[in-house]
Amino acid sequence: MLEELSVQDFALIERVSLTFSPRFNVITGETGAGKSILVGALGSLLGMRTGAEMVRFGCEKATIEARFRLNRESAVRDLVLDFGGEIEDDTVVIRRLLGSDGRTRVWIGDVSVSLKTLRDVASRLVDFHGQHDHQLLLSPAEHCAILDSFAGTQPLVALLREKLSKLKQLREQRATLLERQTQSAALRDSEEFERRELDEINPVPDEFESLTAEQRVLENVERLGTLLASVCNLLSESDDSVTNRLGQARKWVQEVSSIDERLAEEISGDYEALETLAQEISARCAARVESLEADPGRLDYVSNRLAQLRRLIKRYGSVENAVARRKELELKVDADADTAEAIDRLGEEIRCAHGEMADLALELSRKRAGAARRLADEVSASLASLGMERARFEAGMVPLSADGVDCLTSDAIQYDGHARNVGDSGAEEVEFLIAPNPGEPLKPLARIASGGEISRVMLAIKSVLAEHDPVSSMVFDEIDAGISGRIGDAVGERMRVLAEHRQIIAITHLPQIAARADHHIVVEKEEARGRTLTRARAAEGEERVLVLAELLGGGEARSTAIEHARAILNGSEDPGATR
Prior knowledge:
- The chain has 579 residues and is α+β, with helices and mostly antiparallel strands.
- A six-stranded antiparallel sheet has the order 2-1-4-5-6-7.
- Helix 6 (154-201) packs antiparallel against helix 12.
- It is elongated.
- The chain contains 17 helices and 17 strands.
C-alpha cells in the first residue's frame, strides 16, 4: 500500500509531498493542471520509461520517492530481503533519480538496484492502469494472460513453455543426427575405400624418417664399409696408427708430469681419456664393418614402402596426418552405429516429452475452460453493477487447429478427437466478447464503439481480477473516460466497494466518483517567480465541497453548484442513499 509520495523537480513540479489513505483516494484538477504529470511521476517510480526531458528545466536531476507499507504475506518482502534491502516497521522506501543527462538510478530499501528489479518489485506492489491499458484490453493477444491471471494457471503456462523448449531441443538434436546419417550414407563408399587403403598401408608415426635413413645405408653398403675400414686402419690397425702414436707419447706426458705437477693434474686425465676414446671409436667402426651386408631384398622393400608413404604424405601432408585420418575413419564407423542408436533413443525421449507436454496442455485447456465460465459470470455481474445490467460477456476460447499429430515433428496434440496445435500459450487463443445490449450478438471488445462502455468493461475486469490478485494497490488513470451522470455514479460506487479490499488511487474528473473517496487530492497550476508550477494538496472539510463544486461546473451558479456538491458528498457517505 502506498503511504507517501514525494516528487521534486519533475516536469512542472518543484516539490510535492502527499500522503494516501489505505482505501479510496482520488486526484482531481482542471485540465492542464498537471494530474498527468503527477501520475507520470508515480509511473516513473514504478519503472516506466522516463526521459531526461521530464527533469524540470534548469535542474540537474529529478527525484521521486515513495513509502510502501507491506502486508505480512507480501511477496515483496522476500524480494527486497534477497538483494539486501531494508524493511523498517513493515515499510520499504523506493527512490528513483532522473538525471538531465539521461541517466537514472534506483534505490529500494537503501540498496541500489536495476530498473528490471524495480519493475519486478513494483509489479507486486501496484497494479497501474493507465489510459493505454484500454488498448491492451482491446488486444486479443492480452486476453489469454488475463484469463490465466484469473484462473491462476500462470505456473502451468510456464511449465508448458519449458516442456515445449525441451521438445524443440530434442528435435533439433535428432534432426542434426539424421542429417549426419544421410551425409554418412552418401560418403560411406568413398570413406570405406579410403579406410581400406590406409589399413593396407598401415602407416606408423616416424616410420618415414627411419626408413629413409635405412635406405641411405642399404644403397651405400660398399662405400660405407670402405670408409669405416679406413678409419679403423688409421686409428689402430696400421703400424703408424693413432693409438700407437698416443702410446708412444704417453711417456713424454709422464716425464712432463714429473717436472710440472700442476700441468700433470690438468692433462694426464684428459690424455688417458683420449687414448680410450680412440680405441672405442676404432672398435665401433670395426663392429659396424662386420655387420654390414648387402641386402637387395631389404632395399627393394624399403624403397617400395617409402613410395607408399610418399603417396600418403602427398595426400595428407604427413604420415602423422594419415595416421590421424585412419583413426578418424575408424571412429566414424563406430559413430555411425552410435548415431543410429542415438536417433532411436532421442525418438523415445521426444515421445515421452511430447506426452508430458500434451498432458499439461490438456490440463491447461480444461482449467481455462472452467475459469472462462466463472470469469464470464463474475464480469457480467460486475458490469450489471456499473449500469450494464443486460450486457453479456464471454471469454471465448478458439482451438489452434492442426493437420495431424506427429510427435516427432510437431507440437500438435489430440483433443476431443481433433488435432490441436500447441503454442507457448497453450492449445487455444482467448478473445473477450461482449454484447452490451439485449438482442445483439457477441462481438470482440475491439468493436465496442462507446468509450464509456470500454471504461466500464475495464473496471469490471479489474474488479474481478483484484479478488484473485495479491497486489494491494490499484491506480486508475482516467478510467471514467466517456462516462457521466448515472453511470458515473455506478462507477464511483463500484470503486468504493473495491476499495474495501484494495487501496484505490483514481485520477478522475467526475464529482460522483470523487465524492466517494476517503482521501481527496487536488492538483493545481500556478505561477511563481516567473515560472509555472504544478502543486498538489489534500482537500478536506468545506474545501472539499468547493472542489466538488468546481468539478460540477457546467454553468451552474456557484451557490447552486456548492449545494449540489454538498448533497453529493453527504449522499456518498451513505451507500444506500438516493442519488
